[in-house]
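Technical annex B. To support the medicinal chemistry partners, we prepared a structural model of the target in complex with OX2, based solely on the information shown next.
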Amino acid sequence: MINNLNAADLPRPAPRSSNPEIMAAEIIERLTYRIGKDVKVAKPHDWLTATILVVRDRIIDKWMASTRKAYADNSKRVYYLSLEFLIGRLMRDAISNIGLMQEIRDALSSLGVDLDVIAGLEPDAALGNGGLGRLAACFMESMATVDIPAYGYGIRYVHGLFRQQMADGWQVELPETWLAHGNPWEFERRESSYEVGFGGSVETIGGYEEPQRFVWKPAERVIAMAYDTPVVGWRGTRVNTLRLWSAQPIDPILLAAFNAGDHIGALKESNKAESLTRVLYPADATPAGQELRLRQEFFFSSASLQDILRRHLQQYPDFTSLPDKVSIQLNDTHPAISICEMMRLLCDVHGLEFDEAWTITRGTFSYTNHTLLPEALESWPVPLLERLLPRHMQIVYAINANTLVYARKEKKMPDQQIRSISLIDENGERRVRMGNLAFIGSHSINGVSALHTELMKETVFADLHSLYPDRINNKTNGITPRRWLMQCNPGLTGLIREAIGDDFLDDAEKLTALDRFADDAGFRAKFAEVKRLNKVRLANTVAQRMGIRVDPSAMFDIQIKRIHEYKRQLLNLVETVALYDQIRSHPELDWVPRVKFFAGKAAPSYHNAKLIIKLANDIARVINNDPAVRGLLKVVFIPNYNVSLAEIMVPAADLSEQISTAGMEASGTGNMKFALNGALTIGTLDGANVEMLEHVGDENIVIFGMTADEVAKARAEGHNPRAIIEQSAELSQALSSIASGVFSPDDRSRFSALIDGIYNSDWFMVAADFDAYANAQREVDAIWSDPDSWYAKTVRNTARMGWFSSDRTIRQYAADIWRA
Ligand code: OX2
């Protein structure tokens, strides 16, 4: 339609104004004509939607300009493929990044609407489980900020991560419905839809004389429909796209069946297609292993790859330039099947030869590993892959053959190593190893902290690393300072601006200028006051939601993250019980008043994790109601942890618990958020804690416990937890009170198996690290008792954490991996 007109001659909408009066009028206009509500009857939700629509307009101009610029400059594009994007609420982020916070606030207040009230109504987009999904969200914001043309590709789950409720202290999972009121941020792109196939067979054409060709004839097909959400960088520099795929049936209804009276059968296909993108799998770092999960992985990989290749051919004549113009980053192995899909599309659809396609594919893909836990490494049974994706299975065999021949013939690799690098795991049921596929199909494989990267080289990928020694590299994780400082902590942001000016807003590493204020008593007092107000806010949240009163002058000690044995909430709880015993036996001592906060979700099928939640609630009930404690210790498990709750808890923390068994937490990112917001860390030498120690200095962090090497050695040689427990009176007493039912009088043996696990194997080194941890906690008490020293340390944490900005991480990916 536009083609026979000259686009430049068409009238253009006037650029959007940032004048509060004009924006107020626009909000009313949206309310009336887009939502169809009279001002008099509009509900708070309608105001929210109208405001988002007005904000959104201000983003669209920049969005289009960013897209046009990438075409005009022939820039390289980065594609971040991730099954999870834990983006949370978007409105405040967007308003703040385009610099209209005060203007929108004024516009709304002229209409009698409070920005904070409607912002609190925006649902959390919980399209992720934990750290991996939240990292993807921080990366999206940082890629826009550092001006990299990037697309995030993922799934538009109708139900994100479940809502957690407590029933008598047990976790109960309820469906989450973030789309219930519609989603004003997304644009449905009907023109960007692709067919994705499953099952069927592969037809071979040619052979002998002509080259062989393969054609996959899928038995089932669904449509992948794109939904785009703009991602605004800091100061609105650039707006990128988060493209989420939704599955739709090819035939919405089988009319013949319907007309024949089979009303349910007529919708069967349609329901099946839609169920593909209905729910996010709720397991963090443990593969679900179900066919639907593999279908989700292939569905979004295939749609994304088709989209990427189509966009490339719109601009370039062929695929030889693909590695120069496109980088595809695989967020863990969940999208690793993309490597085979790229090979299939290049060879079977676009007619390239296998070897040429392979060079292009490997030059384009790179892979980030997020965990070393052996049980967390994805693999799929060969028969399942063969049935669901027969052509991809052939490609797996072809890649494997080439790799193994190279390793054996040219590198003289011995049999045992050959077995370990193979794409097929032959121990027991034959399975395809997705980690090996991602490694072999990528030119870069990165870990997420220095320690994790070294351990990758020594453990899971030792043999592949010896074959391809240049591929593994480190990119220590980061967090976006926009959400995790400026927005969640306006009080601290204001105070820092007063002290050192605005430079840190554009470059978090400029926070180092704050360092000298650690010695300034006046500044420390203001810093403490900001912290107090944030603690009051959290105390109010807890009072409102749970009816529990906590004292903001107590130390707020916080552990928030997924519930996992390796993260050791259990160590924290056992120490809580030991402290409780001490407070009761020694009322004459000067105990530091503490509130121990916990929050986090457990995978619904993870029995011990759910038991740990119940234990926390049982312990809380007993301690919080015991008058002998005299309010010196409180335990609070806040239900339904999500990004928005984190935004309240992180700024309110005095003490950040980062106490995983060394060698098991790949990086952690919560650790960075707390330290940036002026909390002291108590932590093990694990993941990024090691680098935090280097940056903040060892006098400003409390490190305890076994090192990763010591843990590995104890596991290999066997350690004797029973002997360790017997030597520690505090530990024995705490464990036996939990095991004997002091906290569970209604079911005295409820926790006995959990505690037996510590006595019998202590895989996670809870007993082995207990004394070191308890001593470290008393060291924390001593620092707390000297407020000058406490706040000097916490100010230094804020000042020295700028390096952990995800802008730095993204610049390193861009320089070393993407060359974008
Ligand atoms: C998490 C890791 O457990 C965590 O240590 C890391 O900080 C985060 O990813 C981001 O890199 N699922 N979640 C993770 O790994 C997997 C697998």
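Notes passed to the chemistry partners:
DSSP finds 34 helices and 24 strands in the chain.
The radius of gyration is 28 Å.
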